[in-house]
Amino acid sequence: MILNSAAPTREVAESAIPVPMRFTLLCLAALTIMSGATIAPSLPALEAHFAQHEDIALLSRLILSLPALMIALFAPIAGFISDRYGRRKLLLLAVTVYALAGISALLQESLVGLLASRILLGIAVAGTMTSVTALVGDYFSPIQRQTYMSQQGAFISLGGVVFLLTGGLLADLHWRAPFAIYAVALLLIPAVLRFLPEPKRNSIEPLPNNVTNGNPDWPAFALLLGAALLNSLIFFLIPTQLPFLLKEIGADTPSLAGIAIAASNLMGALASLVFYPLARNYLGKSGVFVLGFTVMACGMGLIAEADSFNAIIMATAIYGCGMGTLIPHIFATGLESATPNIRGRISGALAASVFIGQFISPFISQPWIERFGLASGFSAASTTLLLLASLALLLHWLKPKPSAKMFLQ
């Protein structure tokens, strides 16, 4: 593939990737977790403020998860636009809308207005996430991409720590205050203009080993999308339900919720940098799925049994180790299947699967929790993760056909 003179070629060494380009991509990727993590500690106070609304328990969770629906709906469209009209134009528009929609919630007096601002934010995240993921595929070689994805996973997790802690401290002042953090996105527009050139894509780039006639193995890719969906569905229990579990055990300060969720992100950063490369090298692709789902199951099970803030911290940290190992693996594996002409659409499909899971999470978890309790919800999540680990192990034993080994071995 040929890029313009400001961008790296596929053949350059890892060290030749410009640091400003890499750092800009990492910061843009962190906007994804910022969209939800920033306001998670505010949910109990937000629910109390709008207590007069019917079904506010569910609606307050939708404040966090509604952007996920928009991402799921618009990421495939964003992928098509990215492939058809270019990555950078879409990225610049998406980042601008992201900032404006995010901070507009500061001015909303009604729950409807607040939900509308979250819809716009979700559309913006769809464009941002899809174009950034596609650019990673364009700029980096497969080996460079694996290294970058571990760095991105760590950066997103560390960003989650910063945004959660900051959001928690601001939520102690007022539940609206964390929405101001979204203005940070405006600072990235000059960096996009300066450091992220539009790649020139052509048809001479060699096809990945698992790609035939320019198309990946779609059944295997569908399995990957299913894993991404279920993983995000379960993950979203932490930002949407953990603040209420903490309140139930007496730790009801918003900043404590931020700290508890941040513990998961902090360990996720360590796992992305250290555990993921080791797991991929020694366990293989399917082994990373087995390990990631198993460790997350342990974390969720410990959350269900926790009766103190310290126990919650330990449990979320363990969960974060599994999450930080699995998330970069999902995206690196998906990009390995994509040729330049469909890279945007592959990125959009991955983003859609992740955020469909996040959106439907409250609709599945809230009725269960209202009937059986918060602890039971986390326990059920633990059981589901163990089933996913067992399925990954079974698929490995079944020795799938060579094209599917891209995803499973």
UniProtKB/TrEMBL annotation:
Q: Does the keyword Transport apply?
A: yes
InterPro entries the record matches: MFS (IPR011701), MFS_dom (IPR020846), MFS_trans_sf (IPR036259), Sugar_transporter_CS (IPR005829), Tet-R_TetA/multi-R_MdtG-like (IPR001958)
The record's keywords, sorted A to Z, are: Membrane, Transmembrane, Transmembrane helix, Transport
Limits of the Major facilitator superfamily (MFS) profile domain: 21-400
Q: How does it sit in the membrane?
A: Multi-pass membrane protein
Q: Which domain of life is it from?
A: Bacteria
- Pfam families, per the entry: MFS_1
* Compartment(s) where it occurs, according to its Swiss-Prot or TrEMBL record: Endomembrane system
| Membrane-traversing stretches | 23-46, 58-78, 90-107, 119-141, 153-171, 177-197, 218-238, 258-276, 288-306, 312-334, 346-365, 377-398
Q: Which SUPFAM superfamilies match?
A: MFS general substrate transporter
Q: What does this protein do?
A: Resistance to tetracycline by an active tetracycline efflux. This is an energy-dependent process that decreases the accumulation of the antibiotic in whole cells. This protein functions as a metal-tetracycline/H(+) antiporter.
What's the name of the protein? MFS-type drug efflux transporter P55
